[in-house]
Design goal:
The protein is α/β, with parallel strands linked by helices. The chain is 35% helix and 18% strand.
């Protein structure tokens, strides 16, 4: 019997089968866009056993009484892995192949074990910042990375050739979430026969970055990812969807990083754990994809399962900018408009609650010293630091008692004190592929260079772009030279400092911090900053935009008013 929602349509890619949401007898216009994507996946996979018509009706009704109470199956379209969490999954697939050969006695039977959905593994978690402040840093760090991970990388290379439906993106290419944005995601998936919304799960919490492109996806554990690879659904409670209305535009001097720190602070207070957040409102009309990706990326930090942006003109602009096939871009628009997945400011979705932010009110800020939601406006940074030093770090009551000592490093003697920045890192999937903040960092470096300024000698500086596209435009604009003059040489293409791969501090710095129990600080363009994450030598960690990372590297301390 033909599925009543199944239709064949003509697209720029040719004739394709789609499952039409308007075949469902329900008022779908009021559904949040993210729920419509879930609904399509449920509708398309109805088999009467794993996924039933009752599941479709439950999602289509989107009754607030069912939210967070009723379970439905979700079958993502693909899986994305990074090398730390992806290797065990590949080991399990290899073990299954060995098991089936033992059971059948036929070596060829091993070929039956393959992922049933497309899987991509991006190697980005292994590079460490050993070398810095030198033009040889990238080469040295890459060589050490390959030395340390030789067996793992050989195994992954074997997996790439042994399994079908399994691809590996090699080291020194970029960060998994940026590679997903720039190359892997399609927004609307075309397998040659069917069209359906792109969706995925990933073995990294910041998989949510892809939500900025209108793609449903979030991070899961390794067992869940393997289940999806083997064709099984993820069972989830129907999520509550919180609407976040954005209006206005960012003011001059404010960045996407400042915006996401403000949003994180607001959503943490709103308690969105286990919920979807869906952004909407007139502010999205001119909000570029790079800024959306930054907001979506930090969903784990504000506690949500996702931070979703519906498909609109900005989505198409980004697809064209990143070289997607024009036929695919046209198909994305056609499909999303027909399925009611195209963002429409005139349609009000049924959210369980709403927040609103005028982006014009956002000001430069940092977050720290230990939590991403502890936002500090730049104008208050010096006074807040002194308060934290006295209270959080116990350096006296009303009178701050700073600890300091003399340090000699490479024939340069200086005073190292509480609050001094020993790590300044332009790092992380959150910011390092956002052109506005990366160019902003380069312009700060250019102005510093014109004035003869550079990093303080105790600051370990690093630049780890999210992809090689960043290197291309920084090099083409001459800004990479300016960044290098300030100590920000490229150290690798991967997560680096953001996940704690900051590498060792110079021995004299390390000894001084440990010997005198200094409250050293780091400033990074990352997404997490709990004590010990960035470096075991650093107690206070501040999240900031790349331009502010450069500024604090020049200042050498957070005990300063940069305004």
């Amino acid at each position: 019997m033909t599925h009543p929602a199944r239709h064949t349509i003509t697209t720029p890619l040719g004739k394709r089968v789609v499952y039409r949401l308007d075949a469902i007898d329900a008022d779908l216009a009021r559904l949040p866009y993210s729920i419509k994507v879930l609904l399509e996946a449920t509708l398309r996979n109805v088999d009467g056993h794993v996924v039933t018509e009752a599941d479709v009706r439950t999602l289509a009704a989107y009754d607030h009484a069912d939210l967070g109470q009723t379970e439905v199956p979700f079958m993502p379209g693909r899986v994305i892995l990074q090398d730390f969490t992806g290797v065990p999954a590949l080991v399990d697939l290899a073990a299954m192949r060995s098991a089936i050969v033992r059971m059948t006695g036929d070596e060829r039977s091993a070929e039956k074990i393959n992922p049933l959905v497309p899987c991509d593994l991006v190697i980005d978690h292994s590079v460490q910042v050993d070398a810095f402040n030198t033009g040889m840093a990238l080469r040295i760090n890459a060589e050490k990375e390959f030395e340390r991970n030789k067996e793992r990388y050989e195994f992954l290379k074997w997996g790439k050739s042994a399994f079908s439906n399994f691809r590996v993106v090699p080291p020194e290419t970029g960060i998994v979430h940026q590679v997903n944005l720039e190359y892997l995601a399609k927004v609307v998936w075309d397998d040659g026969s069917y069209l359906y919304p792109d969706s995925l799960v990933g073995t990294d919490s910041h998989t949510t970055m892809i939500n900025g492109l209108g793609v449903l996806g979030w991070g899961v554990g390794g067992i869940e990812a393997e289940a999806v690879m083997l064709g099984q659904p993820i069972y989830m409670l129907i999520p509550e969807v919180v609407g976040f209305r954005l209006t206005g535009r960012l003011a001059e001097g404010a960045t996407a990083t400042d915006l996401v720190l403000k949003v994180t602070q607001m959503l943490r207070s709103h308690e969105v754990v286990g919920k979807f957040v869906e952004f909407y409102g007139p502010g999205l009309d001119d909000l570029p994809l790079a800024n959306r990706a930054t907001l979506a990326n930090m969903a784990p930090e504000y506690g949500a399962t996702m931070g979703f942006f519906p498909v609109d003109q900005q989505t198409l602009t980004y697809l064209r900018l990143t070289g997607r096939d024009e036929r695919l871009v046209e198909t994305v628009e056609m499909y999303c408009r027909q399925q009611g997945l195209w963002r429409d400011n005139a349609v009000a979705a049924d959210y369980v609650s709403d927040l609103e932010l005028d982006m014009g009110t956002v000001v430069p800020a940092l977050a720290g010293p230990k939590r991403p939601q502890d936002r500090i406006e730049l104008t208050e940074m010096k006074s807040q630091w002194r308060n934290d030093l006295a209270t959080t770090f116990g350096r006296g009551g009303d009178t701050i008692v700073k600890t300091a000592t003399d340090v000699t490093l490479e024939d340069d003697t200086f005073r190292l004190a509480d609050g001094d920045v020993v790590i300044a890192a332009i790092t992380s999937c959150t910011n390092t592929s956002n052109p506005s903040v990366m160019v902003g960092a380069g312009l700060v470096a250019r102005k510093a260079r014109e004035r003869g300024l550079t990093r303080k000698p105790w600051v370990k500086t690093s630049l780890a772009p999210g992809s090689k596209v960043v290197t291309d435009y920084l090099t083409g604009s001459g800004l990479l030279d300016d960044l290098e003059t300030c100590g920000f040489y490229i150290v690798g293409y991967g997560c680096t400092t953001c996940i704690g791969n900051s590498g060792p501090l110079p021995e004299p710095i390390h000894d001084a911090i440990r010997g005198y129990d200094l409250v050293a600080t780091s400033v990074l363009s990352g997404n997490r900053n709990f004590e010990g994450r960035i470096s075991p030598d650093v107690k206070a960690n501040y999240l900031a935009s790349p331009p502010l990372v450069v500024a604090y590297a020049l200042a050498g301390t957070v005990d300063i008013d940069l305004t």
